[in-house]
Here is the input.
Amino acid sequence: MRSPETTRIAWHISPEEIEDQRDRLLGSRAFGRAGQVRKLLAFLTEHTLLNNHHRISQAMIASEVLGDDDYDSLLDSSVRRLAGRLRERLRDYYSEEGHDDPVIIAFPKGQPYRLVATRRHSIATTHPLDGHAFDEYRKGRALWAMRTPESLHAAMDCFRRAIQLFPSYSLAFSALGECYFFMALWGDAPTRVIPHARANVMQALEIDDDNAEAHALLGAILSAYDWDWAAATTEFERALAIDDKAPSAYCWYSAHLVSIGRYDEAVHAVRHAQAADLPMTSVVVNSHAAKILIVGGRLDEARSLLISLREENPNFYLSPCYLGMLDGMVGREYGQAIDSLQEAAGLSGHNSSVLALLGSVYARAGRTSDAENVLSVLLDRWSRMYIAATDMAPLYFALGRHNEAFKSLEQAMEEKCIFLSWLASWPPLKDLSLDPRGKRILHRLSLSS
Here is the structure.
């Protein structure tokens, strides 16, 4: 009996289309006279595409496909070898006989074993033939990568012009949505800008449901703003099923994995992002990787990466910012932490998030007067502009003003602050998560386990 979740697992492809594609594969030259591989394909199609079974183990495959009820995966690699042969047959089929098939069935590596099915994505729909629209998109991406508020707004103008020139430009819509999301990270109220991010990403998907970047961004919204962990995971799986070489998808996914406490998997995901961005991994991907390495406990590796980034890109403020956070909140090397954060503050135009980090390190270092001065600056700004409550809470906490710190966290819940989902892992926030009031907030986020 088919699961009601069929269309979700098969990514909006009907059971009849799945069955037709399975039959094409089984009737092809690539799968001819491959008895066990054919049985494995039929078994996985039935249990992971037509019926939503999430826990297909090696033992189940050994029993159902190989007829071995005493299989020991530590001593016997026959299931792994069979899985490898199925992947090879699928690759051979889609590179030759099935290169025009409307549905692609893939077998990703990793456990639990599962197949994924996606519609074939036409390269003709990815970018417009209109060179002016593409030039605007390309310039927008270059500006977006500079990671400053000014360059972000300039990038948004480029993406809007690209859409004016080519109204069906799905990638320009998802890029514009990504800019709105980053506005929430860099000082705009999430409740003001995330609805715009969502509207653009939904428009991108309405135009092209095979836009991997759009599915990944939707996953980020569902994770960091909606706190809908299961739905976010589904969107990330969809994005990576479409394009398993997309650096941005792996970056967003790694942040989601941190939120739900799967730190080793987050590091693996960000490694994929770095590898997919080769041969010259961008400063954007590497700075995100450093952040994931910090929360994943790979501190020496994070430090080495950040030092290299600072040397290669001396005007990129996030490198000294994360180094200062690492030294001041993990390593307790307050002198060099303060030097790095002062450098980051200057490079960023005295960004409020950087100043809040600097104030917190001042307080931890016993420089209470300096910390209070930073707090005064931020409170003055707060009366005139939005500052994320997740920036203010650690500063209050470091100054010993715990009631105000947790009042800020309550405000962060109301504001749906993007970093709140990292309460248990982000060094500036982590101490607050150990307090009973912090634990209650984690419970309300469904992150207490």
